[in-house]
Amino acid sequence: MEATRAPFFPGRPLRPLASAPRSALRARAQAASERAHVPFSGRAAAAALLFDDGVWAPGVRVESASFSLTIPPALNAYTTAVASGRRAIVAAAFSRPVRRVERAFLDDLPGGPFRRPGEHVCVADGAAPLPSPRRRLTPFLDDGPVETPRAGTARARSLARNRALVPASRFPVGGVLAVAGRLVPGVNVEPHADPARAEWTHVLCAERNALGTACSYGLLGAGAADDPEASSEAPSGNDAPTAPALYLSCPEAPSGGSPCGACRQLLVELLPRGVLWMDRAPPGGAPERARPADLLPGSFQGTSLPRGAPSA
Q1: Where are the alpha helices (H) located in the chain, listed in sequence order?
Q2: Of the candidates 54, 12, 28, 70, the residue with the CA atom closest to the CA atom of residue 201
Q3: Which of 18, 31, 178, 212 has its CA 20 to 30 A from that of 56?
Q4: Which contacts qualify for 195-200: CB closer than 8 Å, 24 or more apart?
Q5: Mind listing the pLDDT tens digit for each residue in 55-113?
Q6: Contact 262, 207 (CB under 8 A)
Q7: Nearest 5°: phi and psi at 71?
Q8: Residue range(s) occupied by CATH 3.40.140.10 in the chain
Q9: Roughly how many angstroms between the first and final C-alpha of the chain, as a whole number?
Q10: Strands (E), 27-159
Q11: What is the mean pLDDT of residues 176-198?
Q12: What are phi and psi of 58, to 5 degrees?
């Protein structure tokens, strides 16, 4: 049987139609959408980003009672990847048709621009034949449980210095979220390849990075405790704590820094019983303890908002 050939365009080399990896990647995104946190719209959505070695990263839609603070799937997936030490992607698939804003976001990433060979998939221009999405990215830190708050903020400080992507602000922040027996990393991510063209609405802080990753992997939000694959990735000997804890560090802030307003809102919604430990100067000093409600008293919970609101 003759092999399928790509359409011929003068001056362009023939390429095979790599539909199998694209279809498989879309299936990963579709499956991940079951863990979307969409209490207001009810419209689950997810993305799956593919790397050149076949590893893929999921990202789900995470809604907030403050609608404009909702974390889109592709941004969630990309910030998960950056906090795990990865950046350049070769393809992205979505559980629903790709939208213009999502295509624009991808085009500005390292490795862009992207073409859209299908309704649900984008592929980096010049990318080699796509590998099959064979293994889901494991973002969890595996260097043992956090023994003390000071040890937790020390790990967050190391993440800030080594993995934060902050070409515009030059203000690295790191976070370690201890939840359900796992340690989830988070860093500030300014995702644009060209800082001069950076779209600040695409920036995600370390706190929301870690929260978004936890939702994508079934540790927080509507999909919590509904991801057996995440359970199998739990580090041995890292038992679930009685309450989630988030350790934060801002190495460039003399006073240690504090979560911004957007992060405080998401912390109140997704980590209401959690404990925050914030690094304080000098490095190695005693961390400051707070609860999300302490940082945002009288927060907006959206209890009177209608459900089934149209989603962007």
Answers
A1: 19-32, 73-83, 100-107, 149-163, 206-216, 228-232, 261-270, 292-295
A2: 70
A3: 178
A4: 195/167, 195/168, 197/108, 198/167, 198/168, 199/108
A5: 999 999 999 999 999 999 999 999 999 999 999 899 999 999 999 999 999 998 888 89
A6: no
A7: -95, 120
A8: 19-136, 149-295
A9: 45
A10: 46-50, 55-60, 91-94, 114-118, 121-124, 135-136
A11: 89
A12: -85, 155
What percentage of residues in the chain have a pLDDT greater than 90? Answer: 69
Question: Given this model, what pLDDT does residue 308 score?
Answer: 67
Q: CB within 8 A of 155, min separation 6: which ones? A: 141, 143, 146, 174, 176, 183, 247
What is the per-residue pLDDT for 303?
Answer: 76
Q: Which of 160, 175, 146 is nearest to 248 (CA)?
A: 175
CATH number of 149-295: 3.40.140.10
Q: Which CATH number fits domain 19-136: 3.40.140.10, 3.40.190.80, 3.30.160.270, 3.40.50.300?
A: 3.40.140.10
- Model confidence over 270-293: pLDDT tens digits? 999 999 999 987 766 789 999 999
SS3 177: strand
Q: Report the b/e string of 128-165 with b at 16+ CB within 10 A.
A: eebbebeebbbbbbeeebbeebebbbbbbbebbeebbb
Give 264's strand partners. Answer: none
pLDDT, tens digit, 9 for 90 and up, residues 10-66: 444 434 445 799 999 999 999 999 999 999 999 999 999 999 999 999 999 999 999
Tell me how many degrees the CA angle 201-104-5 measures, rounded to the nearest 5.
155
The two three-digit tokens of residue 238, written as one number: 């890292």
Question: Would you call the peptide bond into 306 cis, given omega within 30 degrees of 0 as the criterion?
Answer: no
Crossing angle, helix 261-270 and helix 206-216, to 10 degrees?
30
Q: Write down the pLDDT at residue 46.
A: 98
